[in-house]
Amino acid sequence: MKNIITLALLLSLAAILPSCSGDSGNAPEATPNAAQAAPEAAESAPEDAAAGKHNFRVPVWGMTMEEVLNVEGTAPKNQTEDKLNYETFIAGHGVFIDYQFDKGKLVRESLIFPEVKEDKNDYIREFRDIKDKFSAQYGQPVIDSSKNLTGEDIPNAKKGDAVCEGKLVYGAQWDLPGTTARLVLNSYKSQCTLVMMYTQSGGNNGL
Predict the structure, then answer these.
(1) Residue 103 is part of which domain span?
(2) What's the structural domain count of the chain?
């Protein structure tokens, strides 16, 4: 029951994120110098990073926007009073990065995977690929489950369609030092949405 409740929380958190990037939803475009970043790139994280060497973008909870800008080292794609947005690649997957601030302090980081796929089952394959890549660094997730929201039998060939229609959801969670990382595949406005969220363990997530 605890895992089901937690999965429901992951889904409710993920549902609002695609609208936060201020972007049309097109995947980042590759350039000759595009960094093919992998989760292992976080090995150089400072001692006080939110999840130590486990964190991908090396944020420290409570950082100011100026401090995050300095860590990133490049101009953001979008910037508002309480958000910074970047785009990059993680292990070959295009990603929008969303930093959220509350009262001027960093409270959440989200990685939004926006690529639109013709074969809806490819969303599930992408979820599993990303989950495996982060599991190689973080260890096995403490939650790794799917939930059929309709109770209907869903054939394997139709599971991708079921996700995009809001009938099926997938979620995984890792408990890292000082940080909770959550990977969620669900539906948002009848589109499959894949999001990785980092929040401070036991802290204010800004929602």
Answers:
(1) 2-22+39-200
(2) 1
